[in-house]
Amino acid sequence: MSVISIDNLVKTFGAVRALDGLDLRVEPGEVHGFLGPNGSGKSTTIRILLGLLRRDSGQVRVLDGDPWRDAVALHRRLAYVPGDVNLWPNLSGGEAIDLLGALRGGLDQRRRDELLQRFDLDPTKKCRTYSKGNRQKVAIVAAFASDVELYVLDEPTSGLDPLMEAVFQAEVRQLTQAGASVLLSSHVLAEVEALCERVSIIREGRVVEAGTLAELRHLARTTVTVETGRPPTGLEALPGVHGVRPVDGRIRLEVEPEHLDTLLGHLIRFEVRALTSTPPTLEELFLRHYGDSVNGNRPAPVGGAR
Amino acid sequence: MSSFTGAGRLARLALRRDRIRLAIWVLGTPLIGYALAESVAGVYPDEQARLGYAEAATTSVVARAFNGPVASTELGAVVVTETYLTLALLVALLSTFAVVRHTRQNEETGRAELLGASAVGRYALLTAALVVVAGANLLAVGLLTLAFIGAGLPVAGSVSAAAAIGGVGIAFTGVAAVTAQLTVTSRGANALAAAAVGVAFLLRAAGDVLGTPGAGGIRLDSAWPTWLSPLGWGTQVRAFGGERWLVLALPVALLLAGVAVAFLLAERRDVGAGLLAARRGPAQAAAGLLSPAGLTWRLHRGALAGWAVAVAVLGLSMGVAGHEVADLIADNPATAEMIAQLGGGSGLVDAYLSTMLGLFALTIGAYVVQALLRTRGDETDGVLESLLATAVSRTRWLGTQVLGAVLGALALVLLGGVTTGLGYGLATGDPIGWTVELGGAALLRLPALLVVAGVVTVLFGALPRWSVALSWAVLIGFLLLGQLGAVLDLPQAALNLSPYTHVPSVPAVEPAVAPLLGLTAVAAALLAVGLAAFRHRDTPS
């Protein structure tokens, strides 16, 4: 049974179709990366999962409950870190943590103190004096000190420095080792690559790609750079090979993963002296889907001919 | 680049941001001034009535404390005495909030940092705020002068009266410029400046109470504390009573001094920092905080305490004033008629006391609106999202907010009745009897406040985006129906729209159960609708 399962979810705000047939599945014990740029519908999806917004149509199950109808019962079993953490200006950070924890059904005092130390957060300061990063730490400590089955994190680290980012990653791993599941919305791709087994990439309210990182990589082209004794010929004619170009006396090209074997068989006839093969980074996968918003073209189809 | 570079642009930005607020301020004050002048002219049409007014106002300690001195028996002087404090407090607070809004609030939100990084001088933000606020005050003075002249008052007096009122705004512009440098938060800066307004009020009241009546028992010579108060200066201009124009230099001097100090402080501190350090809080929450009710109490107790102090001071002084009412009214049939009309009874003292209780109920309506609209504030701030993502249901959260506002209103309205009773009882003997009687009478006003709470809840549930504006509009509507309805001869159907119309004005009339039950039923229905609407809508929306 999935922890989160969403089928064909639609949510409109007036004339704007914020979610347009979105599907998403988070399995028990995994950290699921939820990727997409600002305004693509990540936060709307999360608010529906929390029962804050009502869906227009589609199926949504969270921990085998209906997020709207069973909101209170479900919220005892999940913890949420919003993307833009706002707190009560005249409460201290420690008070805000205890309050959020208590309203969720109690938190582990020992874990709370340990997390405060790990994240280097002063709990006696008033919330109004905290920076964005420190407000996020308050929400993270309150969430991580709660013993729940599901953590919903909406861009939780956008205000953290690299040191704290590392602490955050270690703590997330600890949560999943204890058996919890995590939905991690983010556009820090390095964080997603480090933490997530599976990712869903969302664009304009629908998921355009979902799977394990290995699967996604498999759908995308690998970059191969090769140095040969004799100039290779006939490369363009090979199946699944694209963009052959000379670079610094070497040849660089992109090849679809299933045709890598054929390519190597062909290259070997030209005295290979050096060869590097780079699988696509998450960033490249991501930019394939959003390339048009960067350079004004339609995105290249992942995996070429499909 | 000078320290003032960009001030002009920032002033235009402030004008753009506040175009509606400023328009209401600049047009609203003259309108209120005109309306008050017209109504006073109707109540004191001849020299005889005004002489009676001036004598009574100079004799009565309470009238001196609340209205200040009367400059002469001219119509204009009576208009000024009756309107000065309302308008002066209004412009003082408007100026304060506007200055803080465009200085400290910008720093608090980080907008100042964004602006400061561009080609904007160190003093530009403060300068722009001062130019806009001082300009708004000057414009309001001009229009207020025209309003007084339009109401048929002499030109010289109108100019001096409007300038005296505008001077208060100018003076507190200077005060707010300084307080905005002191605290880290705009709330803190506003609170400090508002406290300064309160101190100014008390100083002026003390000076006028301690003053000695002059020739003919009308023109009061205020004692020295009045001269320490920017609110006192305006009364010392003596508009319509041999104007002392030089006194108008005092607020200007205070503005210049305030601006100089503010620039000095701004020079010596970092952007975003204050001179008063932010206090720390406990590292762990007390058990009492850890529930929606505990949180609500924590968030509302400060405001509630402030209201309680104000209500108690007002109740006690109004109560004490009660025994002067008979004397005052004997000299002035017009006032007697007005009070009888407002209180709706025959016994003048009873009418006066129930009028006071009615005014408390109306004013405390503002507490209910303010406290309940915090729901909308929480929603737009994003705090509500964090709360509703915990195991707190929407019904429980909103129910707690409503309960908190209603209990606060109950406490305040009871306090108003008890202190009024205590004050009147102390002045006339039998404090315990009057405390019990007026405390009980005040409680009968609660159903009207329940309806106010119901209206705000419905608006928050069903029309969240409009809830703030509409809630205040409805309360002001109730206020106008109560205050002007009878004067304007509005049809009963219109008056019936206000819950306050249906509250029996005890002790002037006998208590009746049916209207109270009716109001409570209406309130319950409104609350149910509001809760249901909130349970079925998106948050945030």
Helix residue percentage of chain A: 25-40%
Number of domains of chain A: 2
Please tell me the CATH architecture of the largest domain in chain A by its name. 3-Layer(aba) Sandwich
Number of strands of chain B: 2
**In terms of per-residue confidence, which ranges of chain A show pLDDT below 50 for 5 or more consecutive residues?**
294-306
Question: Structural class from helices and strands of chain A?
Answer: alpha/beta
Instruction: Output mean pLDDT of chain A.
Output: 89
Gross morphology of chain A: elongated
Largest sheet of chain A: 6 strands, mixed
Question: How large a portion of the residues of chain B is in β-strands, by DSSP E?
Answer: under 5%
| Radius of gyration of chain B, whole Å | 24 Å
Oligomer: heterodimer
Instruction: Count the DSSP helices of chain A.
Output: 10
β-strand amount of chain A? 25-35%
Order of strands side by side in the largest beta sheet of chain A?
5-6-7-3-8-9
Q: Write down the secondary-structure element order of chain A.
A: EEEHEHEHHHEHEHEEHEEEHEH
How many strand elements of chain A?
13
Question: What is the CATH homologous superfamily assignment of the largest domain in chain A?
Answer: P-loop containing nucleotide triphosphate hydrolases
